[in-house]
Design a protein that fits this description.
By secondary structure, this protein is mainly alpha-helical. It contains eight helices and two strands; from the N terminus they run ααββαααααα. The protein starts with a helix and ends in a 9-residue tail after the last helix.
Length: 173
Amino acid sequence: MGRRGRHRVGGTLRAPAKAYGFSLKTPWRKLPLKVRKLVLEGSEGEELRFEFKLKKGSSWVHHGTYEGVLNNLERRYRETSSEGIRRWIGSLMNPTPCPDCGGRRLKPESLAVRIEGRSIAEWSALSRSPRRAAIWRACAEGGAVVIAEPILSRADQPSQILDDVGLGYLSNT
């Protein structure tokens, strides 16, 4: 990070670093998860003492909450009138799938469980009608029906509710 970036970030991060006992020189990957969460999401309403050193040797003190990097960027994106700033922040907001789950928001252990060769993410991705047909086909076949039937019935419940109220043409995915 350049000198200018380090100065700007460091000034704001000094208060949470002091309050929560972490060093601004510690590499991100070595920071505890609790500290990473604090840096990204803020102090959750807890007031901190911010002290900024001014060029003339004096300092400016402010008490307030630390909003976190993510909240700060979202607020600045909403409030700015600068198209350049909005473009820069927008470039940081591009969704990137998690390397572990591929954006499916499930632990690898959960994705490893398969019924009829499909993970829960693959079952959920099916549109309503094909999913419903596949669920009941899976329940009707094989010896896994005793184990799979309650799980698959639960997964099919939203589809059945839509059908029961005459809205079967809608998708619940």
